[in-house]
Amino acid sequence: VQLVESGGGMVQPGGSLRLSCAASGFTFSNYDMSWVRQAPGKGPEWVSVINTGGGSTYYADSVKGRFTISRDNAKNTLYLQMNSLKSEDTALYYCARGDRKYADYWGQGTQVTVSS
To answer: The dihedral of CA 46, 47, 50, 55: what is its sign?
Structure first.
């Protein structure tokens, strides 16, 4: 199993970024997928979850209305569209296989920094 995140970077407050997670080594379409973030000095925060078909999603209150999770099962890729970014969104963002109850594989993470 391999999960490789990309798309992070530095952006000004109010800006946007789109994260991607390329999955391999398993049948991507059979698993719920998640985005989890960890800010410096804080514990992990479950940002968003999407079910196998993409028809059901979960968002943390802190990102609701600003972030959108999606997936392309034909491309084995998970996405996170992040709009109206705030300084408090600064964190290392991980792609994980599974949901809030259980996630067994994680990527290495991609850094998102929101700063003016």
So the answer is: positive
Find, among 25, 29, 44, 50, the residue nearest to 105 by Cα.
25
Task: Give the span between the Cα atoms of 64 and 58, in whole angstroms.
Answer: 9
Look at residues 91, 96, 90, 99 and name the one whose alpha carbon lies nearest to residue 108. 96
* Residue 39 to residue 45: CA distance in whole angstroms: 9
Tell me the pairing of strands 103-106 and 9-11: unpaired
- Residue 100 DSSP one-character state: S
Per the CB < 8 A criterion, the answer to whether 33 and 102 are in contact is no
pLDDT digits (tens, 9 = 90+) for 8-29: 999 999 999 999 999 999 999 9
Task: Report H helices in the chain.
Answer: none
Handedness of CA 87, 88, 93, 99 (dihedral sign): negative
Show the tokens assigned to 43. Answer: 């514990």
